[in-house]
Write a structure and sequence with these properties.
This protein has 290 residues and is mainly β. The protein has two domains: 156 residues, Immunoglobulin-like, CATH 2.60.40.10; 105 residues, Sandwich (Immunoglobulin-like). Helix content is 2%, strand content 54%. The chain has one helix and 21 strands.
Amino acid sequence: MDLQHRYVHADAGVHPQHAVARCAARVLAAAGACVLSVTPAAAQLSVEVSPLRVEIQTEAGGARTQAVSLTNTGKDAVRVRATISDWRLSRDGAPQFEAPEEGRAYSASGWIRLAPPEIVLEPGAQGAVRFSLSVPPGAGAAGYRTGILFDFSPAAGDPSARAREVTFRSRIATLIYVNVGQPPAAVELTDLRIRTTPEQTQIVGTLANTSRRTVRTKGSLVITGAAGVAVREVQVPDVPVLPESEREVVVVALDRAASPLPPGEYRVELKIDVGLPTLLVGETTLKVAK
């Protein structure tokens, strides 16, 4: 594979990092945690949802049906309510959920139907919410997306009494990527920065995706000493970059809990593979103080 070198300026800009969950997750909803209730003995809810990410490759006019499984691993019955939601990623990768809106760019929410929209899971029970996808015949080649939001609340008790409670319900989402056709990708590495926190030194690369295709990242970050010998290599995280968007990709170069590097000046090279014929490559200098 060819290398596409880009020497991009490094600065000390700081932005928070978030990640999208991609595996089976346990949601603990208790007073003071995910669920806050004015009643003194709030139930503890524990639900596993899988998968949290669904990727579908299809064509215009295609159809698909798939299930999302839910398991109540707690001691109390749980009411699960499923709704369809639009979503996007902020620059730092945090998902932002929005009510579906007709005509919103890259939204597949209007193509999805859920069944059932609400279920009650007894302790130890398993259930499923199925979604049916129908892509319109005239849909253009692009990376579309939608999501299923799952809200959890206690199933027991008097409904009129529950209505008077002040409750913050726990919530988790399954993100659905609907890739229609094979639109060409166009992605650039536009910035490379060093970010320092009390616990870590991070290399932050900014990717600009100007195409209609969702891409995912992989690659490596190599730290080389003064003698030209690589002293550390770290894998680039697998994260999505949505169509026509910018996204920060964060790689932890140094972790205070791990073995530190000796003081000195180091060359840092970041190589990112997003499926293009060339790798996206950026370089900067890292100085480790005494």
